[in-house]
Amino acid sequence: MVNFLRYKLIYLIISLSVISVGLFSIFKWGYSYSIDFVGGTNLEYKINKNITKTDLTKLFKDQKIKLIDMKINKNNLVIRTEALNEKKESLLKSVLEKKISGKITVLKSETVGPILGKETMNKTLTASLLAICGILIYMSFAFKGFNYAFSAVIAMIHDFLVVIGCYSILSHFWGAQVDTMFVTAVLTTMTFSVHDTIVIFDKIREYIKEEGKGNIEDYANKALTQTMVRSVNNSMTIIFMLLALSLLGGDTIKYFALTLLIGTITGSYSSPFVATPILVWLERRKNKR
Predict the structure, then answer these.
(1) How many domains are contained in the chain?
(2) Do 54 and 161 reside in the same domain of the chain?
(3) Under 8 Å between Cβ of 193 and 269
(4) How many whole angstroms separate alpha carbon 260 and alpha carbon 283?
């Protein structure tokens, strides 16, 4: 039996360090949001003449259009602006064609109003809260003890904070945007975290049934020793797949895969090194009363 819980102070320092860096990034730099959340217009044009960012910025200023983001990649021009109606978008295309004295081909044009963006944000927050409440209720009944449910939820919140903190860093330095794919990845991470925690907690409960109410820390260490290899093997198969998608996948799924990769790593870590120590601490407090 390996005494994993002997190093619980180290696990605490690691978790606090990672979460602190992430929270610093959130409060300092925040996020770059996709139009799904804040509304706006995404335009992608194919142009046959070169144009500089300075000229484009001046053109948008003259047209009184708020420019949010702009990328020029050879003959491809990707623009994100405030929400534009069809008339204003058509006028912008005409002005651009006149500016470059050439032809523009529209590759993509999508507009989301700010009301729809706000609705998406509210639904995302509601879904996250419902997931937490559902897991709390389910585990309270399944393990017949609030401490098990509370420990699992704390570990899940830990994973949530790690993922959103890391994504803020990705957003600031590499331009990753918060979109519906990110929300999907976060909710998937929360599920993955609880899955591993349930396996460990079930082993602990099994030892308590077989051997009676002995030393909860010994039971926890035995459970971790038995499940660790299986958990690592299971996690590594997912990590290798997501790593390949992150490195070789296209722009559409790159940050989605990267978010899942971060979530898988922190989920694999939090079950034995966050949820289990918290459960042991809570159970010890309960037994002292």
Answers:
(1) 2
(2) no
(3) no
(4) 32
